[in-house]
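Try this one yourself first.
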């Protein structure tokens, strides 16, 4: 029984850490994995320490990561004068960048936003600003999601210790 519990806790840790990493990486469902890891941790202990209200708060925090990502992306593009096409270009560039490793993940959204703006016949200066805004928005979103994710783990641990 103790061996089975240890295996479940290892799975919990892997899910939680994968979820945390997923908050940084595009196309990895970070918040759901993180929540699933914490839910498994609560289940292992028969929901003795983590009850429905804590789980609802954690689920709300997980959902909040998507809100933060959306708002920060819109903020970055709009603040720097980008269009909707710049946002679409940033998403496409980010996906294409996945195939080029870490440099592609960082450069892809910028190039995509610039190309999106250039397709609207914007100047290179305007397109570059939109690209910069996209990168700023993405960075803010990642930082916000990471803060929420670490907060989820901290809240889980705090409730577990009570």
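Now uncover the answer:
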């Amino acid at each position: 029984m103790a061996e089975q519990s240890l295996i479940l806790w290892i799975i919990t840790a892997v899910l939680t850490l994968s979820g945390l990493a997923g908050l940084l990486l595009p196309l990895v469902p970070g918040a759901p994995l993180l929540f699933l890891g914490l839910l498994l941790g609560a289940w292992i202990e028969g929901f003795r320490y983590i009850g429905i209200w804590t789980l609802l708060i954690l689920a709300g925090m997980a959902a909040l990561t998507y809100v933060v990502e959306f708002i920060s992306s819109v903020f970055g593009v709009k603040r720097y004068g980008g269009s909707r096409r710049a946002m679409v270009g940033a998403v496409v560039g980010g996906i294409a960048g996945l195939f080029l490793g870490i440099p592609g993940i960082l450069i892809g959204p910028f190039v995509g936003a610039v190309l999106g703006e250039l397709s609207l016949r914007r100047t290179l200066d305007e397109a570059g600003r939109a690209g910069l805004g996209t990168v700023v928005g993405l960075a803010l979103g990642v930082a916000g999601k990471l803060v929420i994710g670490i907060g989820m783990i901290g809240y889980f641990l705090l409730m577990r210790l009570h």
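Discussion: The chain has one domain: 2-161. The chain is about 85% helix and 0% strand.
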